[in-house]
Amino acid sequence: MKKGKLKFAFLILAVFSLSIVLSACQDNMKKEKVSETPTTDANKSLEPTYGGSIVVGILQDLDSLDPHKAVAAGTKEVQFNIFEGLVKPDVDGNLVPAVASKYDISDDGKVYTFTLRDGVKFHNGKLVTVDDLIYSVKRCAGLLDKTDKSIVVEPALSNIQDVVKVDDKNIEIVLKEANTELLGYLTFAIIPKDYKDEATKPIGTGPFKFESYTPLESLVVTKNEDYYDNKKPYLDKVTFKIVANTDSAFLELKSGAIDIFPYLTDDQANQLADTFNIKTGNMNLVQALFLNNAVEPFNNPKVRQALSYAVDKKAILDMVAGGKGNTIGTNMFHAFSKYYEKSLDKVYTFDVQKAKDLLAEAGYPDGFDMTITVPSNYQYHVDTAQVLVEQLKAIGVNAKIEQVEWASWLSDVYTNRNYQSTIIGVDAKLAPRDVLERYASTASGNFINYKNPDYDKILDKAIKTTNDDEKVTLYKELETLLTNDAASVYIQDPPLLVAVNKKLGGYTFYPVYVQDMASVYFTK
Amino acid sequence: MKTKNINFIIGSILVGIMLVFVLIGIFYTPYNPNQMDGSVKNMAPSFTHFFGTDNFGRDIFSRCMEGAKTTFLVAIITVSIGVIFGTVIGAISGYYGGILDEIFMRIIDVLLAFPSILLALVFVSVLGTGTFNIIVALGILFIPSFARVVRSEVIAIKQLDYVKNAKLMGASSLRIMFVHILPSTFPILLSAITIGFNNAILAEAGMSYLGLGVQPPEASLGRMLSEAQTYIFSAPWYAIAPGIIIVVTVLGFSLMNEG
């Protein structure tokens, strides 16, 4: 009897204490909001100050510290702060001289001349020489006597025939075939000649110096005092903290452990709007339901077209991005407006009946089962997948989501192409060629196994031509081919929702996928 | 005697409520649990949506029904696997003893030596994620505890006079094992099952919470909790609903077990 009563009392006590804890949480929240408001108003319109350290959340571990070996977009966005190329992209999408102070392209598009900027120093204190430039270019272009095999030479760079030293200030890059787009590829890092420890202690010329790296934890960089732009950087130290997913990043933002986090979901952004500055930009990614064109049933173009008709892109945007972001109709994003064929947006309008008809024609009147492999660290893609699964049910396609670790996504899906479909965002350099080149039949980045001889021919022509108008037309033709073949189900260029600590200013968006910390500063 | 009844009654009521909840969920849910509706995202509980809606505008009440069904199903199958294999292994090794007993028990010792969640993680990473694989993984994990319980009971009971009598009368070993001994282990086995069921529910919720169990968009209680954690401040009902269901169920079974 006694024992029973005691238990019962405990039970009631437990329930009560739980409700007290919960209500206490809510009280705390309200208090936070109140105390934050006055400081925000005081923050505005204040001058940048030097010093201070911040923590930036990133979603994936780095695949290599060596800038020439890294392939993941998530690695390059961080390395942007440590390394610089001959040229680099600026906020408006232009290529501006970086380690080189000026460049000159010969009229026939075959010789690029670069002049080394005066007084650029590596992080180890040594002055950059033309030999370092030549070494770096050759290393990336696979022209060294002993080039590391793990450096993937991009097709655009394999066009380089030789790199010649003109004098102590100038180098010439000589091409096999004329190409006016090469500049966009010369953003790769300039590193010291014959430096062996790039993969463990990377040395570059960027605004920040490498300090330490702990796998799966963080990358720490400190201010480069010798940076040639003596106004930048403002911060003394930036820690890139690797977080498991947007959920944990969100909690860390709440607790104040992270100052900047770029990949919020729309709901999270709304919740943080009171305590953080929320900035909205574009990710400049092609997010799509990428279909493996080599496996059943996606080897049939009709099936791929059916899926394209069955997907309501606008609804996806409303659901996962709160209506922000842009839908896309082909493998290009709106930032490259000059090259974006706008009419392709209207090729696949949401039409369930048409999708069903196409499926029936293809021999799947009752639909089929499919698996969507999604990297679990990108909540945005997982959310998109969930909405897609619902939409595909309307045409009888029974999709199953399989979440995988980022590392296994890279090896299984991207490298080994052992998958049926996946949702991911594909990034690009500041050259439209980079967006489209991966779909050449033999391209190493062609993870969807798209094969179309016409595409290869037009791509070849587009790369070789030096006439800009012709180039634009040919690129648009390529986009049209991709869309008409429904190589994949193109969905959107996701909005980039960034939470920035209210004490910070200067956060800027780039038309490429980078996080520039050199312009970030504390306001007092 | 009386105290036991109170525990048992409260426990049964709680479990009963949950069973009714799940049973109704099998035949009827107010909304399609996976139906998304952009116009009612993150709505607070109301008369149209008893538990509110989630970030996709899905009805949380319907998803709780669906999720509880999944979780219960996983728990029931998992425990069944554990009971069936555990009983057979336990009975054989307890009854025959000797080298057979040694082999079985050492294998089980090895299984028990690892933290169960770690072992489940290993299974899942080998087999892949998904509902079926989680059932297999957890099922294997539940065998040792049942095998041990049954074995010790069988060892105790086989010394009793009525078993010896049956032996003298020439009953076969199998008959003695399964007709004479096993029924006597049921009271102990039953309480082991209720504890096991609780553990299975928590294990499934834990694995799905980690993203290794049931895959989205399917609902399970753990999966819902995991999805809800981002919204704990802005939409607390999202986390509270599946949380309460887990608490009530586990509490119910624990109280029943005590009684």
Automatic annotation (TrEMBL), chain A:
Keywords: Signal, Transport. InterPro entries: Peptide/Ni-bd (IPR030678), SBP_5 (IPR039424), SBP_5_CS (IPR023765), SBP_5_dom (IPR000914). It is found in: Cell membrane. Residues 1-24 form the signal peptide. The keyword Transport applies. Residues 95-429 form the Solute-binding protein family domain. It is a lipid-anchor. Transmembrane segments: none annotated. Its main location: membrane. GO terms for biological process: peptide transport. The keyword Transport applies. GO terms for molecular function: peptide transmembrane transporter activity. One of its GO terms (cellular component) is ATP-binding cassette (ABC) transporter complex. Belongs to the bacterial solute-binding protein 5 family. PANTHER family: OLIGOPEPTIDE-BINDING PROTEIN APPA (PTHR30290:SF9), PERIPLASMIC BINDING COMPONENT OF ABC TRANSPORTER (PTHR30290). This is Diguanylate phosphodiesterase. It comes from Anaeromicropila herbilytica. The lineage of its organism: Bacteria, Bacillati, Bacillota, Clostridia, Lachnospirales.
From TrEMBL, chain B:
It is a multi-pass membrane protein. PROSITE patterns: ABC_TM1. SUPFAM superfamilies: MetI-like. It comes from the Bacteria. The keyword Transport applies. GO terms for biological process: transmembrane transport. Its main location: membrane. GO terms for cellular component: plasma membrane. Residues 68-257 form the ABC transmembrane type-1 domain. CDD domains: TM_PBP2 (cd06261). It is found in: Cell membrane. Keywords: Cell membrane, Membrane, Transmembrane, Transmembrane helix, Transport. The keyword Membrane applies. The chain crosses the membrane at residues 7-28, 72-96, 103-126, 132-150, 176-197, 235-256. Belongs to the binding-protein-dependent transport system permease family. PANTHER family: D,D-DIPEPTIDE TRANSPORT SYSTEM PERMEASE PROTEIN DDPC-RELATED, OLIGOPEPTIDE TRANSPORT SYSTEM PERMEASE PROTEIN APPC. This is Diguanylate cyclase. It comes from Anaeromicropila herbilytica.
